[in-house]
Amino acid sequence: xxxxxxxxxxxxxxxxxxxxxxxxxxxxxxxxxxxxxxxxxxxxxxxxxxxxxxxxxxxxxxxxxxxxxxxxxxxxxxxxxxxxxxxxxxxxxxxxxxxxxxxxxxxxxxxxxxxxxxxxxxxxxxxxxxxxxxxxxxxxxxxxxxxxxxxxxxxxxxxxxxxxxxxxxxxxxxxxxxxxxxxxxxxxxxxxxxxxxxxxxxxxxxxxxxxxxxxxxxxxxxxxxxxxxxxxxxxxxxxxxxxxxxxxxxxxxxxxxxxxxxxxxxxxxxxxxxxxxxxxxxxxxxxxxxxxxxxxxxxxxxxxxxxxxxxxxxxxxxxxxxxxxxxxxxxxxxxxxxxxxxxxxxxxxxxxxxxxxxxxxxxxxxxxxxxxxxxxxxxxxxxxxxxxxxxxxxxx
Length: 396
Ligand code: PLP
Fold this sequence. Notes:
Blueprint: E1 6-7, H1 18-24, H2 26-29, H3 40-60, E2 67-70, H4 73-88, E3 95-99, H5 104-115, E4 119-123, H6 133-139, E5 144-148, H7 162-171, E6 175-179, H8 191-194, E7 198-202, E8 213-217, H9 232-235, H10 243-256, H11 260-278, E9 284-286, E10 297-302, H12 307-316, E11 319-320, H13 336-340, H14 345-349, E12 351-355, H15 362-381, H16 384-391
Parallel strand pairs: 1-11, 3-4, 3-5, 5-6, 6-7
Antiparallel strand pairs: 2-8, 7-8, 9-10, 10-12
Helix pairs in contact: 1-10, 3-10, 4-5, 6-7, 11-15, 12-15
């Protein structure tokens, strides 16, 4: 029998879809022109970029002139925060508001700015994984340059009250950025309706390739360049455009945003089966609220086991999963997101994130639900920590 292979780590990255690959292919070999060249081959490349820009804009309720392509979600995050801080610092605005459970693309950017004299307020999250808009309101001061709160968290999937936060920022006349890398394609987004000033997105979370992203910059908001050089992207972002990747992103976002409610209903039902099934294992807990959660996200702490061992054993059964965010899985530190929820270190260590998508089947869910309890039982049988836990001993 063939070994099973189940990819349940779509929050880390996704497989490039057939449709996306097909859309990209001509731009490698036939339409390979430089989009800055004036002959037809170049003009075709520029045309393809503009078509893709229209698709990205349509997917999030923006105008095409408000979209710039970047190399990834991290670049978009860096650009938003560093750009606004650079522009507003001379006016005495050297304060940033963000939250403790942002992706490192935001947290490390803020930490870098702290070294350069900016002050950062890291807002806490509630035990079920939400930033309180009232906290944002209270933290805003005269010197606040930007508020950056993620649309949906990459580890626990909680969808933040973005409209409310955007409204507060608008009232207080503070720029509002949201990292929507995990939300785009899963949640309906309308930047104009929500009053968002800046939004980051990335291709590889929605079945486009790695290494392409975009930023939405509200019309009228001036954002200094992050990358200097040629006149690409209307003089705002230098570097010869990665035409196949940009075309792929356009096709991917078009597909991902075409039928969000229908897709979300299907994925949420499967996700709930997963959550309910895994929670039947004793001493487990769901991390993050079940309501206002990304459809495909399941994050559960399993006491008495090490996340790393769990992932390795699941891999032996053909299941790809994650224990924290992909970027930190090389580290043994517990996830900053789970710690922010108030979990103890040893409980945070034993977490399992399964991120599924619309390509999942009931059989895939069944297989995971058969495998996880088996693996947990084996690991607990070998774990001195588990022995202490069931004896009720203090595990510190
Ligand atoms: N922001 C969030 C919430 C993410 O989940 C990720 C990737 O995991 C990023 C930013 C970074 O995106 P990229 O990998 O395209 O740089």
